Structures are given as structure tokens and as C-alpha cells.
Amino acid sequence: MRKFELYNPIRMIFGAGAFDQLGELAAEYGSKPLVVVGRSHARESGLLDRALELLTGAGLDPVVFEGVEPNPRVTTCEKAALLARENGCDLVIGIGGGSVMDASKAIAFGFYDPEGIWKRIAHWNEDHEKIDKALPVILASTLAATGSEGDSGSVISNDETREKAGVIDDALFPRVSIIDPELTLSVPLDYTRDGAIDMILHVLESYFNGEEDAPFADRCTEGFVAEAVTALETVLEDPEDIDARSQLSYLGAIALHGFINKPRGGVFQIHMLQHPLSAHYDISHGRGLALLLPRWLRYVSRDNPDKIIQFGDRVFGMALENYHPFEAVDRVIDRLDEWLESVGAWFYMEDFGIPNDPAKLQEVAESAIRVYGAKEGVIDGIKPLALDDIVAIYRNCVRIGTPEAVMEEEPEEPIEDIVEEDAQREEVMEEVIIVEEGEALPEGVEGEYVVEEVIVEEEEPKQEQ
């Protein structure tokens, strides 16, 4: 087993009604918080007004920043950090899904240098600087998904450079994370599904790409996935099931907490391939992961079939011992495909408006290598991925395997011609009934019939030897 350090100082407040503690908890860390929310949901649902009432009721003087978008932009974080500086804020409170929580962390360290946020994220650039301090952060999650409420990471996009990357630093651990499953009840089902797939990938990436000798971590992962699958299917059938939503909220919060993945390590190859897709085409993170997961798994499957077979056995209950390892692996991935389709998460590039353009796919792959390929130009993992490998995986995600072409459609026949042809066919149509000689025609049959005489030749009896 590899050596590792497990450190997670987050104070997690979990359970229905936990959001009511926001004011008293925030008062422990500051007096003038910047309250960060998305573009509309927090205000329209009344959650923002409720938060402000709790904060002012506890004697705090909140400042509001609205407008964090999905795949949060560095320019948005810069504006919010500048607003916090201008108002003398001493605390950041993020209320929302993964985008809001990630942005809140970037705003917290950007407070000390609003224009320098990106250079502390873009570790591949020469002007990169490490984070040295950040304002205290409190998070209240409204979507079970990214796990940002349980880790020290933040993922931000740069529209100008078409890059999306994460930054991890101990200074970004939230002081408090409020995980109230009731806040997730108003989340649309497709976002709930996307979030469940995201949290599943948070443990599966390490499961497939990490150290082999971590049996307890493997069991945790397998149980995690099984429970996430069950909870998601329950919520899709009954969106008001608070127990199933609570399970998703808990699983999402602990996926990146550390104790599951730390013993194995392992890079997040699928995330590293998804981030540039989001940066270039602004697609939902969870849907991008669902798009890539089965294609990535097929591409790398021959490099570690035993782990994939173990997954099929323990999570899907598949009996695979009598199959060749490669056939067993294919059966597991087929089963995964079926599950994705059953929850409405089987996608192609075209479903997100991504053209089947080799030049564009090459550009996105180059972005993945630039951000995550280090000096060697290869993303490490179960199967190290070079540029050509990434392009191949992307191309496997398109509906057809060749570039899009304008297809000439056959001209439609005028409707009156079709009707006339059908009428002519009815006039000349004959039904042929084959009967034995001497057999009567079926009762109730009308019309003219051609009776074909069938002659059956009897076989000569075989002579005994």
C-alpha cells in the first residue's frame, strides 16, 4: 500500500433542516460575509432571502454576489473578489451547487489579489504562483454532485484561453459545510442524475487508475457505487423521496473527503478529458463524464481487465468466471452502457452540439495535454494517454466514425402519386393460398384466388442393408 497523508479539517453539518444553523455558524468566522450564489435559483426559490435573514438575525452584515455560471469563469471570480475587497468582507459563504462552491473558494484566495486568480490555477504556465492565504469559506450545498463541500479543490474555466483546470490547496478547505438534503428537492432530475454520475466517477477513477493493493478502499468504492445507483434510481422514480436524496447528499460529500481514495491514489483521467470539453463547448460536467466513461473504459480495458471484472462481479452481480478476461470485460462495459441508457445518460458528442470535426477534436485533445500532460505530454493512469489516445477516445464518442457530411436526401414523392400507386396496387393484388390437392379453401374468404396444386412425391422406402 502506498504512503499517504489524510488531512481534512472540514466541520460538516448534515441533515434535514441543517441550513437553519447558517447564521450562528457564520458568526464564528466573520462579521461581513460575501454571499455567493448562482444566476437565478437561489433568489427565485427564496433560498437567498432565507440566508440573508439568518445572517442578519445573527448580527452579520452580508454583501451579495449573484451570477456564478455553470463552469464558473475566472472573470466572474475576479469581479466577486474585487467586490469583497471593496466592501471589506472577511468571510465567503457559497450557497449553491458545485460551480458556486468552486467559485467561492477561488474568490476566497482571489480576495488578496483579484487579478491574479488564474496564475494561481494555471500551474503549467511560467508565471504560476502558489496560494498562500484565503478568506474563511462556508459552503451550503444545493446539489449532490461535485464534492466541493468535502474537499480543498476548485475548478475554474478561462474563456479567453479555452482552458479549465483545478487548484488544490489546504487553504481552500471550507471551515464549515452545511449539507441539508431538503435544499436538493427543487433540483431538476437531469441535474440530479448528472450529479450522481459525477460522484460515482470521483471514486471510480481512483478505483481503476490507482494502486492495486487497497482492498478496503475497493470495498468502499464498490459499496459507494451500488448505493449511489440505488439512490439515483429511487429519486428518478420519486423526486420527493427525502431519504434517497439524503443518501445522495451524503455520498456526494464524502466522495472526495479522502478516506476512500487516499490509500490508492490514482489520477482522474476521465475528468482530465472532460474539462477541456467543457472549456471549449460549455457542457454539463456530469453529462460530459457520462459521455466519456464507457468509451474511456473500453479504450483502456485490456490494460487492467481484472479490476473491471471485479467491478462487474461486486457491483452488478455478474457471473464472469467462465469467460475469457477480455470477453468478461466487454460484458461488464455493456452492462454499464445499459445502466447509463436506463437513467437517460447515454450520450454522443452531437447531443451537446459538439461537431464531428477532426480538427476541433484535435484542438480539445491538445488542450487536455497542455493542462494535464506535464512535461512528458502524457496523462498517466491505468493506460497512459498521449495525444493520439485522447483523440481516439473523443472520436469514439461521436455518433458516426467519419467527419460530418451534408447528405443529399432523396426527393419525396408527391402525396397524390403515392395515393394513386396504392390504389392501383389494391386493384391488381392477388392473394395466393397454397393448399394440398383436394383440400377445401378457408371459410369466410372472399375474392378471387389462385389455387396451386401441390404434388408431394413419396420417397421410396429404404432397403435394409
Work out the radius of gyration.
Answer: 30 Å
Strand content: 5-15%
Low-confidence stretches: 404-430, 447-465
CATH fold node name of the largest domain: Dehydroquinate synthase-like, alpha domain
Number of helices: 15
What secondary-structure arrangement, pairings included, does this model have?
Layout (H helix, E strand, L loop, with lengths): L10 E4 L7 H5 L6 E6 L2 H4 L2 H11 L5 E6 L5 H13 L4 E6 L1 H13 L26 E5 L11 E6 L4 E6 L7 E4 L9 H21 L5 H23 L4 H13 L14 H13 L3 H16 L4 H12 L8 H18 L15 H15 L14 H9 L19 H14 L2 E6 L12 E6 L11
Helix pairs in contact: 4-5, 6-7, 6-10, 7-8, 7-11, 9-10, 9-13, 10-12, 11-12, 13-14
Describe this structure in words.
The chain has 465 residues and is of the alpha/beta class. The chain has two domains: 11-184, Rossmann fold (3-Layer(aba) Sandwich), CATH 3.40.50.1970; 189-395, Dehydroquinate synthase-like, alpha domain. It is 43% helix and 12% strand. It has 15 helices and ten strands. The chain has helices spanning 22-26, 41-44, 47-57, 74-86, 98-110, 189-209, 215-237, 242-254, 269-281, 285-300, 305-316, 325-342, 358-372, 387-395, 415-428; strands spanning 11-14, 33-38, 63-68, 91-96, 137-141, 153-158, 163-168, 176-179, 431-436, 449-454. The strands form three sheets. It has a six-stranded parallel sheet. Strands 6-7 form a two-stranded antiparallel sheet. Strands 9-10 form a two-stranded parallel sheet. Helix 5 (98-110) links the parallel strand 4 (91-96) and strand 5 (137-141). Helix 7 packs antiparallel against helix 8 (242-254), helix 9 crosses helix 13 and helix 11 packs across helix 12 (325-342). The longest helix has 23 residues, at 215-237. The chain is globular and about 95 Å long. The termini are far apart. Mean pLDDT is 89; it is low at 404-430 and 447-465.
